[in-house]
Amino acid sequence: MKIAVIPARGGSKRIPRKNIKEFCGKPMIARSIEAAYESGCFDKVIVSTDDQEIAEVAKDYGAEIPFLRPRELSDDYTGTMPVIAHAIEWFEAQNENVDLACCIYATAPFVSADDIKTGLNVMESESLDFAFTVTSYAFPIQRAIKISSTNRVEMFHPELFNVRSQDLEEAWHDAGQFYWGTSLAWKENKPIFGTSSAPIVLPRHRVQDIDTPEDWTRAELLFKIMNPNGID
């Protein structure tokens, strides 16, 4: 069985209730649920939440809520890995075997059904623990600078000051949209950023982390530019 697990706890502090806050006409979480179903990859699309209101909104958009997430997995310090492992183990306790699980973040309005399908194809064609979305940095990270406590500037890598930008190795970062993984990899807490993971490369304009109100505003502007007729 292949499942999509959308983690959505109720305790967001920087953007209160961000998982169900309206984003360009729909609750934010609805876009992840719809992309999961549109992909056609899953036997079940579930939302793992500790919050009854989030659960009801998720149900309205077709997601299953087979359980409410335990309190010990719903605080500010719980990572993604134990949340997905908990969902897998819950199904196993019901005698339903999970082969692959895809964590899709609830605040990923640019997540694409086609990209989710690409991730599944990669997982099924190669021997991997994980496949997840990445995008490139817009500026060479080797030229990054820091500001000191005395308000002065210095490079992290001053030895690279005279190296041309085009001669520096391109760097990538997690795009924060979805993570395909084997059941075993999730349960054994294997490293996602490792040699048994494959990248699903996304263009930078379809990637926006949403942690602050500024992030939210930028994401809405990008979404409206890409969907000028209100069609998503």
Brief digest:
The chain has helices at about 30-40, 50-60, 80-95, 115-125, 185, 215-225; strands spanning about 1-5, 20-25, 25, 45-50, 100-105, 130-135, 145, 155, 170-180, 195-200. It has about 230 residues and is α/β, with parallel strands linked by helices. α1 crosses α4 (about 115-125).
Q: Compute the number of helices.
A: 6
> How many separate domains make up the residues?
1
Radius of gyration: 19 Å
What's the total count of β strands? Answer: 10
Report the top-level CATH class: Alpha Beta
Order of helices and strands: EEEHEHHEHEEEEHEH
Q: Report the portion of residues in β strands.
A: 15-25%
State the end-to-end CA separation. Answer: 29 Å
CATH T-level fold name: Spore Coat Polysaccharide Biosynthesis Protein SpsA, Chain A
State mean pLDDT (0 to 100 scale): 95
Major β-sheet profile: 6 strands, mixed
Helix content: 25-40%
- Per CATH, the architecture is Alpha-Beta Complex
Instruction: Name the CATH homologous superfamily.
Output: Spore Coat Polysaccharide Biosynthesis Protein SpsA, Chain A
Strand arrangement, largest sheet? Answer: 4-1-5-9-6-10
Q: Give the overall shape.
A: globular
Question: In terms of per-residue confidence, which ranges show pLDDT below 50 for 5 or more consecutive residues?
Answer: none
Structural class: alpha/beta
